[in-house]
Amino acid sequence: MLDKYREKLANSNEIYLRIKVLVNAGKTEIKEEMEDNTIKIAVKAVPEKGKANLELIKFLAKEFVVDKNKVKIISGAGDRLKLIKITK
Questions:
Q1: pTM to 2 decimals?
Q2: What would the pLDDT profile of 20-41 be if each residue is shown by its tens digit?
């Protein structure tokens, strides 16, 4: 599901993703891409003290094969809807 975004990142130095986070899930995984290109991702972590955000960053870094410090939450750190920037 992330292939088109991986390709965009390969062809440029950065991409932006709109993510809707579903917290406290059984496992961390991509659920779906909505009509407005928002990607729903379930994370296993609870939304306490940034744990869900850290789990999301770790997951996206693994999916895009980049270091965790290359994945930044631009906005929405305290919300379910987030804007994420990933750089090479």
A1: 0.94
A2: 999 999 999 999 999 999 999 9
